[in-house]
Amino acid sequence: MRYMSLIKIDPAGVPEGGPSEELMTEMGKLIEEMTKAGVLLDTAGLAPLEESTRVQLSGGKLTVLDGPFTEAKEFVGGYALMQCRSQDEAVEWAKRFLTIHGDQWEISLEVRAVQEPDA
Amino acid sequence: MNQADERTRRAVEAVWRIEAPRLIAGLARIVGDIGVAEDLAQDALIAALEQWPDEGVPRSPGAWLMAVGKRRAVDLIRRDRTYARKLALVGRDLDADESESGLGIEPDAIEDDLLGLVFTACHPVLAPQARVALTLRLLGGLTTVQIARAYLVPEATIAQRIVRAKRLLTQQRVPFEVPAGAQLAERLPSVLEVVYLIFNEGYSATAGDDWMRPALCEDALRLARVLAGLMPAEPEVHGLAALLEIQSSRVAARGGAGGGVVLLADQDRGRWNRLMIRRGFAALAKADALAKARGRAPGPYLLQAAIAASHARALTTQDTDWAVIARLYDALIVLLPSPVVALNRAVVVGMARGPAAGLALVDELAGSGELKDYHLLPAVRADLLARLGRYGEARTELEYAAPLARNAAERALLLERAAALPR
């Protein structure tokens, strides 16, 4: 099964200066470990929220809004697409990803199974 | 069991699946026997099941399990002097192991241990079925029940297969080590074969009424990726990974309504998973570059991956570059002169050089008496005959093929094709 892990970040919970060098090193190690374990299919961080565009459909009306969206309580900061044997395994990898962030971050992962066609 | 305990139990299981191979490999290096190592790892797992519900899951669950496993290994050796002497005989120094280990385990050492586990579980003294069971269990982190379910056999069958395999390794004094240099090249095919067999069992189920068991395909793919990480310089390892990534990309398009199968030519290529194809291409490029850099001719997995990649490049069946694929098969048949490869080659030649040329190869194969009970031989012959306008003969071939098919879905497909031929 494939699992999409959406990385949701609280803008108020980002340490000053963004991710530390240590975090980036740990992240690199974890990504390598997950790749070598045959689990990680694809992962990336997303460009800052200020650069995003919101395209919305409401009541049949399309609106296009440019960032920044200062009212956002949380935003998607990145994603990881994993291939795991179970949701529990995906959750275990998610825990490892969060653990390396230490106690400075307000961050959560939404782990969702990708709907596979019945084979 | 309350909800928190249930969550912890599930977490322990997930940790096991992730950590079991490294844990067993690390312990096998200490005790020199994968059977004993697995027992010790199981002890550590039981300790986790007992302690984590109260204490919580530790921050580094893998290191926790390894520490417990190593303590048990030391206990075992102190308790059992005979065992200690046996270890001394195979040149293992427990104290040295203890002092160097601790919790700061070197990643390189772990990868070496994992490789040792790979080559021991896939040792050529073991029959392929035994290698498969042992590999899924020790490297795949699957339980005996899960393996039995995947192979649709009783649990006792798999359990016995694993016990016997471990016993044979001990009896034959197979050392826990990574073969060096030329020996590695010699032993590699028996490793790759195991992963390939697991994938094929899932991709084209030989038993039961399901055409595919995707979980088994995923297990094999995962193992192939692990091997690529452990042996990054071996072109054939990347070739195997490339082959399986590309084959996996077709899983969604391959399953027809009602459990049937959709053949490559008829698949909706829009349903092919482009991410898997891209990953396959990347692995193939790596395999290709390594083979060239090391002055090696393309091996059988690299060639099969190149064939799969040629199909993946074609956006429609009509776009398929059959001439390229036929040339790849010309090379493959030399390395893998099996009747099944010969049959596939006949299909490809039929596309590249016309149905009459393909039919000549099939007839040659049929004349050899090989594959006489294999349903695809008459099925392929039928296809070539139909393309030559010989519908009556084609129908006879398909009706002959149907009862030979291995599962209900394949059987139904053959009869459907017979019925669809012009009268």
Automatic annotation (TrEMBL), chain A:
<comment type="similarity">
    <text>Belongs to the YciI family.</text>
</comment>
<dbReference type="InterPro" id="IPR005545">
    <property type="entry name" value="YCII"/>
</dbReference>
<feature type="domain" description="YCII-related">
    <location>
        <begin position="1"/>
        <end position="96"/>
    </location>
</feature>
<dbReference type="Pfam" id="PF03795">
    <property type="entry name" value="YCII"/>
</dbReference>
<dbReference type="InterPro" id="IPR011008">
    <property type="entry name" value="Dimeric_a/b-barrel"/>
</dbReference>
<protein>
    <submittedName>
        <fullName>YciI family protein</fullName>
    </submittedName>
</protein>
UniProtKB/TrEMBL annotation, chain B:
<dbReference type="InterPro" id="IPR013249">
    <property type="entry name" value="RNA_pol_sigma70_r4_t2"/>
</dbReference>
<dbReference type="GO" id="GO:0016987">
    <property type="term" value="F:sigma factor activity"/>
</dbReference>
<keyword id="KW-0731">Sigma factor</keyword>
<keyword id="KW-0805">Transcription regulation</keyword>
<dbReference type="Pfam" id="PF20239">
    <property type="entry name" value="DUF6596"/>
</dbReference>
<keyword id="KW-0238">DNA-binding</keyword>
<feature type="domain" description="DUF6596">
    <location>
        <begin position="187"/>
        <end position="287"/>
    </location>
</feature>
<dbReference type="InterPro" id="IPR007627">
    <property type="entry name" value="RNA_pol_sigma70_r2"/>
</dbReference>
<keyword id="KW-0804">Transcription</keyword>
<dbReference type="InterPro" id="IPR013325">
    <property type="entry name" value="RNA_pol_sigma_r2"/>
</dbReference>
<dbReference type="Pfam" id="PF08281">
    <property type="entry name" value="Sigma70_r4_2"/>
</dbReference>
<dbReference type="InterPro" id="IPR036388">
    <property type="entry name" value="WH-like_DNA-bd_sf"/>
</dbReference>
<dbReference type="GO" id="GO:0006352">
    <property type="term" value="P:DNA-templated transcription initiation"/>
</dbReference>
<dbReference type="Pfam" id="PF04542">
    <property type="entry name" value="Sigma70_r2"/>
</dbReference>
<comment type="similarity">
    <text>Belongs to the sigma-70 factor family. ECF subfamily.</text>
</comment>
<feature type="domain" description="RNA polymerase sigma factor 70 region 4 type 2">
    <location>
        <begin position="120"/>
        <end position="169"/>
    </location>
</feature>
<dbReference type="InterPro" id="IPR013324">
    <property type="entry name" value="RNA_pol_sigma_r3/r4-like"/>
</dbReference>
<dbReference type="InterPro" id="IPR046531">
    <property type="entry name" value="DUF6596"/>
</dbReference>
<feature type="domain" description="RNA polymerase sigma-70 region 2">
    <location>
        <begin position="20"/>
        <end position="81"/>
    </location>
</feature>
<dbReference type="GO" id="GO:0006950">
    <property type="term" value="P:response to stress"/>
</dbReference>
<dbReference type="InterPro" id="IPR000838">
    <property type="entry name" value="RNA_pol_sigma70_ECF_CS"/>
</dbReference>
<dbReference type="GO" id="GO:0003677">
    <property type="term" value="F:DNA binding"/>
</dbReference>
